[in-house]
């Protein structure tokens, strides 16, 4: 991995260099010498020739924090306002602004920056410096730009108390709030590192955060990934499995069959940092959270912000992206269906294709393999089809789904989402076969090696086994909690419960990760349908597939018996004991069951409770909620609603994840609403549902996709590994050769 200062050899301290450091005689003692050496080494490694450049709005505390950082590093401190601009102009900044006006001031300020140079210093920019592109490009060449991100309301309060009445751009036509919001786009353009600064955080604390952030920026070695089946040292039983984020996005599954997880765990946010995001938009929250989870050596902050803006822009029909709606009593719905394919999978799969395209080497083509129980397929197909044309030429998608195990509308959607680089294949089996087959294909080195040598094509995964799929889901769980605080439902710090319809354990795992990162979640409620292996496991500690057959239900996305992401959760509560995780999942694979030790089960039950819902209760819940509120739940959300009603204790709010739009399951919804005759045509079913004028309205993207589908076709194959591999090779030949 690339390191900023690797190219600089460390200079040894000689007698000459010691004297140049102005050491007093008393400092020749061993302890004092060690202190000076430590200070010099820290400063030299952290800075070298580079500057630490502090950027942020007026009132962010750049000057004060810069002085503290400079003192800690024992290096020069430069304040652009005092030491550059006023020295150059021989007048105060406010006088200059008053003298020449806003636009000319920005130009003169930029010219002064262009003439300025420094190295090994801490530099505090003015609040308006980032608005001059050439000046910032000049500064950035020899500096690490640190954005002190302070909530706008805090800045306005500070400026008022400081009696600041003149900042660049302020006029009767532009309010202070408008100017601060306008400037954010420039700060986001230039920064390398963001440091969150809350209202009551002392400057000394912020300075330490700056130093920690700079150290992280320089050392990507701290953020490696290991397999859930690695030993405690991080070494796999097969090979050294340390990887970086860009590696795990591309590789998907670890070579030993385990799943990738961050070796040092997820970043922790302080309560103050979370509170600083209460007023933020969904996109802003996503930027902050994902920056802390993805090292800038893998994806720079500016590029990540660009990807997030693309993913959550016009593709979502609701400006709030993931709004929280009050349902009844202490129950709230987190609406996760406003993306283009009407399910929660869009949150990851509008983002992941762009992360993937950025991370992969340009010298190789990639085929993404996907197994879906319903919603993932159309979301993957849609997401990867939105890549730039040059990326679509080297990245293709093949989606395998159970031919008779998804709803008619879901199947129509997957057919309709096929594009020039995205195809669907129906398999005459269930989801568990599809998922197991893909895992076996990835670990078949003969087949994957053949594809690489013969066709220059590598395989990759976009299922929730891919680490990058989980990160965007953490964002919406955290955002839902912050929205409840913002709406005045709860004060920050009060707990909530979260209830999630659960199949592959990815969504509920993301909520658990949000809890680990500091969101006050009390209990995670796992809601199952008749395929209730997880309910039994959480209650008893026994994961037993013996004698179980998958049942087709009205909630097909959770028609799953082998929950892949459970492995990541067990890795956490087992204190990263990869040997134990390997033992458990080998036993599951070979014998069809495993049992947790008592202490692990007790740990699990501190986080999780579980229940399941019958088909009759699912339909009854849809009818009941519609009758009392006019709101239509989809079948998966209805499963969660039933379980939430049974398990919640009503001592705190409960957020129910509404994971899909009811339009996708029109036959079941119409049955729940007690419609006697149901037309088999999916488009007719949606038109009938729209006549109810219910909340939420019919999903726009789904309706458009079905209109375009018409008599679209797709391939169907037998449940045979060799047949699946034949389809993969044929697709590669047709698309890449």
Automatic annotation (TrEMBL):
What keywords is this UniProt entry annotated with?
Answer: Amino-acid biosynthesis, Pyridoxal phosphate
GO CC aspect terms = cytoplasm
Tell me the InterPro entries matching this sequence. Answer: P-loop_NTPase, Ser/Thr_deHydtase_PyrdxlP-BS, Shikimate/glucono_kinase, Shikimate_kinase/TSH1, Thr_synth_N, Thr_synth_N_sf, Thr_synthase-like, TrpB-like_PALP_sf
Q: Which cofactor does it need?
A: pyridoxal 5'-phosphate
What pathway is it annotated to?
A: Amino-acid biosynthesis
Q: Name one GO biological process term.
A: amino acid biosynthetic process
Q: Which CDD domains match?
A: SK, Thr-synth_2
Spell out the SUPFAM superfamilies in the cross-references: P-loop containing nucleoside triphosphate hydrolases, Tryptophan synthase beta subunit-like PLP-dependent enzymes
Q: Which residues form the Threonine synthase N-terminal domain?
A: 239-312
TM annotation in the entry: none
Domain of life according to the entry: Eukaryota
One Pfam annotation reads SKI
Could you tell me which PROSITE patterns the record lists for this protein?
Answer: DEHYDRATASE_SER_THR
Q: Provide any one GO MF term from the record.
A: pyridoxal phosphate binding
Residues where N6-(pyridoxal phosphate)lysine occurs? 345
Write down the NCBIfam families for this protein, in alphabetical order. Answer: thrC (TIGR00260)
Q: Which family does it belong to?
A: Belongs to the threonine synthase family.
In Swiss-Prot or TrEMBL terms, this protein is called THNS1 protein
């Amino acid at each position: 991995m690339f390191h900023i200062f690797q190219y600089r050899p460390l200079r040894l301290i000689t007698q000459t260099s010691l004297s140049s450091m102005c050491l007093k005689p008393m400092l020749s003692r061993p302890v004092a010498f060690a202190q000076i050496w430590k200070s010099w080494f820290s400063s030299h490694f952290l800075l070298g020739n580079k500057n630490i450049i502090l950027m942020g709005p007026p009132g962010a505390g750049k000057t004060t924090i810069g002085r503290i950082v400079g003192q800690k590093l024992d290096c020069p401190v430069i304040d652009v306002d005092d030491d550059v601009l006023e020295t150059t102009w021989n007048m105060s900044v406010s006088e200059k602004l008053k003298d020449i006006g806003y636009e000319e001031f920005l130009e003169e300020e930029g010219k002064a920056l262009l003439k300025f140079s420094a190295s090994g210093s801490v530099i505090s920019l003015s609040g308006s410096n980032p608005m001059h592109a050439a000046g910032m490009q000049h500064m950035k060449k020899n500096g690490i730009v640190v954005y002190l991100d302070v909530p706008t309301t805090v800045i306005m309060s500070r400026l008022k108390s400081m009696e600041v009445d003149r900042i660049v751009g302020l006029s009767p036509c532009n309010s202070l709030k408008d100017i601060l919001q306008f400037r954010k786009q420039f700060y986001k353009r230039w920064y390398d590192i963001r440091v969150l600064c809350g209202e009551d955080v002392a400057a000394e604390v912020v300075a330490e955060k700056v130093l920690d952030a700079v150290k992280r920026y320089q050392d990507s070695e701290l953020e490696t990934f290991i397999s859930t089946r690695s030993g405690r040292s991080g070494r796999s039983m097969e090979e050294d499995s340390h990887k970086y984020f860009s590696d795990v996005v591309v590789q998907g599954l670890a070579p030993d069959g385990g799943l990738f997880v961050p070796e040092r765990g997820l970043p922790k946010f302080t309560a103050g940092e979370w509170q600083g995001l209460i007023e933020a938009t969904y996109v802003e929250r996503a930027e902050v959270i994902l920056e802390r989870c993805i090292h800038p050596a893998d994806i720079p902050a500016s590029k990540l912000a660009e990807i997030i803006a693309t993913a959550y822009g016009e593709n979502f029909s609701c400006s709030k992206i993931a709004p929280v709606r009050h349902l009844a009593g202490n129950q709230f719905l987190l609406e996760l269906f406003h993306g283009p394919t009407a399910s929660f999978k869009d949150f990851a799969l509008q983002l992941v294709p762009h992360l993937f395209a950025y991370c992969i080497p340009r010298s190789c083509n990639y085929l993404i393999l996907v197994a879906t129980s319903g919603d993932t397929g159309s979301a993957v197909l849609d997401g990867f089809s939105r890549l730039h044309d040059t990326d679509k030429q080297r990245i293709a998608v093949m989606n395998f789904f159970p031919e008779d195990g998804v709803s008619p509308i879901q199947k129509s959607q997957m057919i309709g989402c096929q594009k020039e680089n995205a195809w669907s294949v129906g398999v005459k089996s269930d989801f568990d076969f599809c998922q197991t087959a893909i895992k076996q294909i990835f670990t078949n080195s003969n087949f994957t090696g053949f594809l690489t040598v013969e066709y220059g094509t590598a395989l990759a995964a976009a299922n929730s086994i891919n680490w990058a799929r989980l990160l965007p889901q953490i964002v919406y769980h955290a955002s839902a909690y912050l929205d409840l605080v913002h709406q005045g439902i709860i004060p920050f710090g009060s707990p909530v419960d979260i209830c999630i319809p659960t199949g592959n354990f990815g969504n509920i795992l993301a909520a658990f990760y949000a809890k680990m990162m500091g969101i006050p979640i009390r209990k995670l409620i796992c809601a199952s349908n008749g395929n209730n292996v997880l309910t039994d496991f959480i209650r008893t500690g026994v994961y037993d597939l013996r004698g179980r057959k998958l049942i087709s239900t009205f909630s097909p996305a959770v028609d799953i018996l082998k929950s892949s992401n459970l492995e990541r959760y067990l890795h956490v509560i087992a204190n990263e004991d990869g040997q134990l995780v390997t033992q458990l999942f080998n036993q599951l694979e070979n014998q069809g069951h495993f049992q947790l030790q008592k202490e692990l089960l007790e740990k699990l039950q501190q986080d999780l409770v579980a229940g399941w819902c019958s088909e009759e209760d699912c339909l009854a819940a849809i009818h009941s909620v519609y009758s009392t509120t006019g709101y239509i739940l989809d079948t998966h959300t209805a499963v969660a609603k039933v379980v939430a009603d049974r398990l919640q204790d009503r001592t705190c709010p409960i957020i129910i994840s509404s994971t899909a739009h009811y339009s996708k399951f029109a036959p079941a919804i119409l049955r729940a609403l007690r419609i006697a005759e149901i037309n088999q045509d999916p488009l007719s079913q949606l038109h009938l549902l729209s006549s109810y004028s219910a909340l939420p309205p019919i999903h726009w993207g789904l309706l458009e996709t079905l209109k375009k589908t018409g008599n679209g076709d797709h391939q169907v194959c037998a449940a045979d590994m060799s047949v699946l591999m034949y389809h993969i090779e044929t697709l590669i030949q047709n698309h890449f050769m």
